[in-house]
């Protein structure tokens, strides 16, 4: 990991630990964006989100595994994570 990567990783951890709740966007079965507020639990660069096996989230992810997470605080500090789920 380069110094720049380490700095980004440290800032990511600081923001996601402090803000905790984020907006998560998926694509529904009709290819429309859908968002909700969730609380991912991070273990390094792997985030865990609990959901029911037959929930709308699970159906959206089964059709398109790409999601976008946005953390933002009242001072407008933010981080956006685009990732692939499994």
Describe the structure.
The protein is an alpha+beta fold and 86 residues long. The protein has a single domain (3-84), classed as Pnp Oxidase, Chain A (Roll). The protein is 29% helix and 37% strand. The chain has helices spanning 3-19, 56-63, and strands at residues 22-27, 33-38, 41-43, 46-48, 66-72, 78-84. The strands form 2 sheets. A 4-stranded antiparallel β-sheet has the order 2-1-5-6. Strand 5 and strand 6 form a beta hairpin. The longest helix has 17 residues, at 3-19. The radius of gyration is 14 Å and the shape is elongated. The two termini are 24 Å apart.
Q: What keywords describe this structure?
A:
Pnp Oxidase, Chain A, 6 strands, two-stranded antiparallel ribbon, alpha+beta, 86 residues, 2 helices, 37% strand, 4-stranded antiparallel beta sheet
Tally of DSSP β-strands: 6
Q: What's the end-to-end separation, in Å?
A: 24 Å
Adjacency order of strands in the biggest sheet: 2-1-5-6
When the domains are counted, the total is 1
Structural class: alpha+beta
Mean pLDDT: 89
- Amount of beta strand: 35-45%
Order of helices and strands: HEEEEHEE
Q: Name the CATH superfamily assignment.
A: Electron Transport, Fmn-binding Protein, Chain A
Residues in helices, as a percent range? 25-40%
The radius of gyration is: 14 Å
